[in-house]
Amino acid sequence: MIKAALAGLLLVIGIGPVGARPAPSPEPTVTVTVTPSPAQGGGSASGWPLWILSGVAGAGAVLLGRFVLARRNRTAATDGRTPLGPPPQPLPVLLAGGADSRAPGVALDGGMLAQTTIRAVSIRGRRHRYRGEPLQDAYAVRLSADGRWVIAAVADGLGSTLHAEHAAAVAVRAATSLSLTPDLGWHAAFATIAGEVMRATARFAGQPAGQPVSRASDPPATTLTIAVVPADGGRGVAACAAIGDSPALWLHDGTWTELFPPDGQRPANVTSALPDDLGELRERQIDWQPGDVLVLCSDGFGTAMGGGGSVLAQQLVTSWSSPPALRSFFRDVGFHLSTYDDDRTVLALWAGRHDTAVL
Predict the structure, then answer these.
(1) What is the separation, in whole angstroms, between the first and last Cα of the chain?
(2) 224, 180 Cβ separation under 8 angstroms
(3) How far apart are CA 219 and CA 156, in angstroms?
(4) What CA–CA distance (Å, rounded) separates 5 from 281?
(5) Within 10 A of 78 (CB to CB), how many other CB atoms are there?
(6) d(CA 197, CA 218)
(7) Is there a smaller number of Cβ atoms within 10 Å at the N or the C end of the chain?
């Protein structure tokens, strides 16, 4: 009877039947011990039969188990979020040789361009903070000279190259300074941007910090993803083009679509980049409508989105159905999990004029 009572308790608090394989995480247990008195012939010292005491102990254990389970569930639901992985361990945070507002470790923007609403954030990753390295992502967004288009760009400097942050910064500024339209010849545009990256970073090619220029073969390089959307917030054709693994995700009618899915033929740790891989350019046009959201991001955030199928992505279907306040947007992008330690940059565009009280 005692074993049956304990089995009932263990089932209630989620451990499983007695003798079953233990769960990976320890759960609270309750041990009930009843010692029969020899003088009572198998009864208790108080004169109560052992089977009655077993039943009372079992009922008490079940009630206690239910209390523990309810308390555990309330604790897990406190923040209303489903975790993506284990929380990170504390690490020292080192500045990249100092701090400068022209090259911040965190950047945050929000507002409107014409009838398109913008949110943007760039956060130096835990790995770079620990090593005292700079943020290697960059973003830029501007209204075209004729006021018809919003041009947005996100770049992720390749950490395997020196001074990659300079390549990323030059790429997004060059992209948003061009007169881009959805029907533009993208190859010519990316060739122009690649030339700008090469010229601007030539002095860094193969040059370790504080060392003379060498003849190393890995000059600064960067991914680049560009979007061009109608500025009036109405229905029209929008276009994206990309070299490298910085994703573009389109939220339409409550569903995410990854515009440039990963190439299954390429190893996960290898990506194309500017200025060398112009032949890897990919293009996509979409039917842009009021209420749509277009997200350009570096892979430090894109990986967590899982192509639009992750827990995080499904949460953002609701929280990003309209532009969030800047502080909320920063929290959405700046989650703390040990398995996501790269830089994160997100540039999001909402079709239409939305509330811009972003602070």
Answers:
(1) 63
(2) no
(3) 15
(4) 66
(5) 7
(6) 14
(7) C
**Token digits for 276?**
């060398």
Q: Domains in the chain, ordered, with CATH?
A: 2-76 (no CATH), 106-351 (3.60.40.10)
With helix as H, strand as E and coil as C, how does 158-170 read? CCCCCCHHHHHHH
**Per-block mean pLDDT, blocks of 10 residues, the chain (359 long):** 45 42 46 44 50 54 52 44 61 75 86 95 83 90 96 94 92 96 93 96 65 57 98 96 97 97 73 94 96 96 93 96 94 83 92 73
For the record, the structure tokens of 190 come out as: 């990316």
- Give the largest Cα separation in the chain, rounded: 101
- 136-194 pLDDT per residue, tens: 999 999 999 999 999 999 999 998 888 899 999 999 999 999 999 998 889 999 999 99
Q: What are the angstrom distances between the C-alpha of 9 and each of 24, 56, 57, 68, 99? A: 18, 12, 10, 11, 57
